[in-house]
Amino acid sequence: MINGRTRLHVVANGTLTGQRYIDEVLLPHVRLFRGAVGDKFVFMDDNATCHRTLAVQDCLDSEGIQRLVWPARSPDLNPIENVWNALGRQVAGRNYTPTNKNTLIRALTEEWDKLPEQLLDNVVQSMVGRVECCITLHGGHIPY
Predict the structure, then answer these.
(1) Gap between the Cα atoms of 68 and 56, Å rounded
(2) Distance CA 73, CA 97 (A)
(3) What is the pLDDT of residue 75?
(4) CA-based nearest residue to 14, from 23, 3, 4
(5) How far is residue 35's CA from residue 31's CA, in Å, rounded to a whole number?
(6) In the 8-state DSSP scheme, what is residue 8?
(7) What is 23-88 written as a DSSP string?
(8) Which of 25, 39, 85, 89 has the highest CB neighbour number within 10 Å of its CB?
C-alpha cells in the first residue's frame, strides 16, 4: 500500500493449500492488516489455485475482506510481479549467494526490508493505469 508494507511472510515447507493459505497468511496477516487499514482495504492476491478455494472465499467473506476481482492468468495486471522482480534482483546482487533454504529466506527477508518505499508506492499507483488498460482492452468491462 502507499507508505506502508507488511513484513515478508515466507511459506517454506510443503505445498501451499487453501487451508494453509487461510491459517498461515489470511488469518494471522491479512486480517490484521485489513483491521489496521479499515473499510477501504481491498485485497489482491495472484489468482493462484490455492487462493481460489471455496474455503478461502468463505474466510474472506466472514472477515469482511474485499478481494479485487481480476482475470485469471493475467500476471501483467498484478503489480506484485514487479516487486518480486526487484526483490529477486536484490537477492541475486548480494555478495553471498544463498546456498540453502534458510539463507535464501534470510536474504529475501533482509532485501524485502531494504526495498525503497518509493518503488512500492510507484507499483501501487500503477494499478490505476493497469485497471484502465484492462477495461479498455475488454470493451469497457473486465471479463470474469
Answers:
(1) 14
(2) 31
(3) 62
(4) 23
(5) 6
(6) P
(7) IIIIIIIIHHHHHHH-TT-EE-----GGGGSHHHHHHHHHHTPEEPP--TT-GGG-THHHHHHHHH
(8) 25
Reading the block at residue 41, the C-alpha cell is 482495504
Cell of 31: 486480517
- Residue carrying the nine cell digits 501483467: 76
User: CB neighbours of 133 closer than 8 A, spacing ≥ 6?
Assistant: none
Q: For residue 13, what are the contacts with CB-CB under 8 A and spacing of at least 6?
A: none
DSSP lists the bridge partners of residue 67 as 43
Rounded CA separation 139/48 (Å): 26
Instruction: Quick: pLDDT tens for 28-87.
Output: 989 988 888 888 888 888 878 899 999 999 999 999 999 887 766 666 677 788 888 999
- Give the span between the Cα atoms of 49 and 46, in whole angstroms: 9
- Positive or negative, the CA dihedral 76, 48, 12, 22 is positive
What's the pLDDT at 44?
84
Q: For the whole model, what pTM was predicted?
A: 0.73
Q: What is the pLDDT of residues 89-124, one digit of tens each?
A: 999 999 998 999 999 999 999 999 999 999 888 887
- Say whether 98 sits in a helix, a strand or coil: coil
